[in-house]
Amino acid sequence: MLRAAASRCGGGAIRRLSATAAVSSRRKPPQDEGDWSYYKEWWGEDDGPGDGAHTVFRRHSEHGNGVVSVVAYPASQPANDQWPVMERWLQERNSVIYPESTSSDQFKILGYQWRVMRFNDHTRQSTAKVMACYRSGGDRALYSMQQPNCLAVPYVKSMVSAGLTALPCCSYDLRQAVSEQNTMKILCIGHGGGSIPLFLASKFKGAAVHIVEIDPVVVSASIESMGFPASPAKGLSSHSMQPADGDELLWGGIHDRLFLHITDAEDYIANDSNVYDLVFIDAYDGNNVFPRKLWDVDGAFLKNLEARVHLDHGTVVVNLHSDSELGPDVDDDAPFESTLPMGKYVSQVCGAYKQHFGLAFTAAAPWLCNITLVACRNKAMLSGAPVGRSGRRDFVLGNLLSRASMVEQALDLPFPCLRYVKNGFTLVE
To answer: Structural domain of residue 378, as residue ranges?
Structure first.
């Protein structure tokens, strides 16, 4: 769930960087196709999709999301001269799956589009980049695939950056999970277009990514129109128009790390037996409301979630969509149009998660009115911290910044973690 701020959120007041962080700024990351500079291609108008868009999915939800729609916009990147690289990869995948295939089975890229999911034709729920390709010969099949490395929205990058940087600060070996030397368990509450779980499953070979989404219409939209693989979802009457071999051909095993549960998050946590290393929560309905039961300090959800998160390094990341209480670095004169329903509860949400997990901090997503809340076990994070509020804050931020370069390099990220972690950083007291 996202909304643009009237002015840039967070001024990046932290100017003192560690030596490791300075090295991070010199890294040459791969091209970021989801860079915010492309936002005009998919942002549209405040009251609807805007010119040049066409609707590819539209269905009414019975779970509080109103009308769920997906709108397509042309994408300028990657450019046409880069398409043959993907075509060759598809051809190689096809040859592995079908060793007896003939040369007539050729793949051609038809193009790339931004796909934007909306609730009630107004609220932008999620954005993804989708590739469409065509296989000639044989069954002459048409395929679509969400680009898992492309995180288009700043708040998603903020969640990923803050969560993945916090994990090694809590003594978790992130590199081993990347190389499949251990088993990493991740929970994503709120599915949307599926960009976060796809990104994580593509980066961590040792991951099992469980996704919980209450609304089957949202799941259908992500599969039918946003290029999410169909096989992880169970219980849908119709998964996709994509050919039966689509997941195996396009994802090469990534889809086997995804487990999509269509159920209520509170019920799922109450009956789950997994112990999670990392949890992402981004759950808003069509009225832009974050359900109170997901942040009620005395409620069953947080009590059960606390028991399902690893005792030593378990980390929970929450998207708070709000244009108030953005922290000390936000311009007080920013001409916000209105206060969103979540705004006045931000402090309570942060306090509830801190009470259950021990330590919490927030970072402001640039250009948007979203806050990333991270709650984690405080034993390792605060080990050796000085006494005093200011000292603890600087100590925690220093730990995070010292891990940023390692996270970027281990995952070959196309964006810098550092800028998202330090932007409007606040330690919840």
So the answer is: 19-32+153-427
